[in-house]
Hints:
This protein has about 300 residues and is mainly alpha-helical.
Amino acid sequence: MLAYIEKFLEYIKYEKGLSANTIAAYKRDLLFFHEFMLSQQGSTHPDNITRQDIRRFLTHQLDEGISHPTVARRLSSLKTYYKFLVLEGHCQNNPTVDLETPKIKRKLPDVLTIEEIDLLMNQPQVAKVLGLRDRAMLELMYGTGVRVSELLSLQIEDLNFLAGFLRCFGKGRKERIIPVNQTSIEWTQRYLARSRPYLVKNPGERTLFVNAHGRPMTRQGFFKILQTYAAQAEITKEVTPHTLRHSFATHLLENGADLRSVQEMLGHADISTTQIYTHLTRSRLREVYKLYHPRA
């Protein structure tokens, strides 16, 4: 099985162009399955694995306390792997066909109110070099709904201030164009003019947001910055980079944006992923109704 896993990983890297993180996740999932089958029956050749074997693997994972989302992802990895094996003629049968993914109860994400967003944005000391950078990062992330990895990989040339758009590359290196509001544009321009030149040491560095040493910022670095400002603003909700993305989507829908447009801006391949935000807006409507309707 290990030889087939290597062929599969080469396929998703060179043919599908998936990111290094995604490829690593596939590899981990398939190696977990390989080790399980080795311990169970000593043979891991794809043609010797049955539908029942895969069910036993999933049950074993759940019994070991592995979370439902992780087990569901591992089944998804196996499905993709077996599709590849059948397509390439390495395997006659696909034991994952019609195999159901364990049901997952989706946790509704925390969303900041407009007031909390304003509080958060006002925390950085914009008179300072790093404070101005931080304000620009927060404004751009909330203003566009990009993922933290997308924000931190932005290059200067990815922003078109005149047209009011930015270009980013999401999962699977899929390119998308997102509108940028005037507030985000203004803060980013201030950062480029008054902050970034003091941070960048290498004239050839084109990454938009850099750390105190002039190098591209890490996700861990951004997370720490965000946590610091959330604490200063005394926001009691859990605030992560994804919270800003959730807030972006929810506030758009609450103010009348259509689901399809929000899906495109978020870069969701499937609109069902975006539909989680309709639950949030319905919850908000119920709160407003209970608060203001005389018969509620």
